[in-house]
Amino acid sequence: MNTRSTTWRGLSEAERAGEPVELMLAHPALIKRPVIEDGEALHLGWDKAVQAALL
Fold first, then answer.
1. How far, in Å, CA of 53 to CA of 6, rounded?
2. Sorting pLDDT into bands at 50, 70 and 90, what band is 27?
3. Which of 20, 34, 39, 50 is the right S-S partner for 43, CB 3.0 to 4.6 Å?
4. Nearest partner of 44 among 1, 54, 27, 15, judged by Cα
5. What is the value of pTM for the model shown?
């Protein structure tokens, strides 16, 4: 989670306390290094194909 981004600084305390996955779905700019492990698979990046595979 990129906590130094302007997106993060613009969130309220309540939003920051939310579930990390939900925050990243709502604000993709918060993803610092988009390498996502899903069981046995690794997903690189955060494009529509990766989002579809994870949702």
1. 28
2. very high
3. 50
4. 54
5. 0.57
Q: Do 24 and 3 meet the contact criterion of CB atoms below 8 Å apart?
A: no
DSSP, residue by residue, 10-54: TS-HHHHTS-HHHHHHH-GGG-SS-EEEETTEEEES-SHHHHHHH
Q: 36, 28 in Cβ contact below 8 A? A: no
Separation CA 20–CA 11 (nearest Å) = 13
CA distances from 15 to 27, 49, 51 (A): 11, 26, 21
Residue 15, φ and ψ in degrees, nearest 5? -65, -40
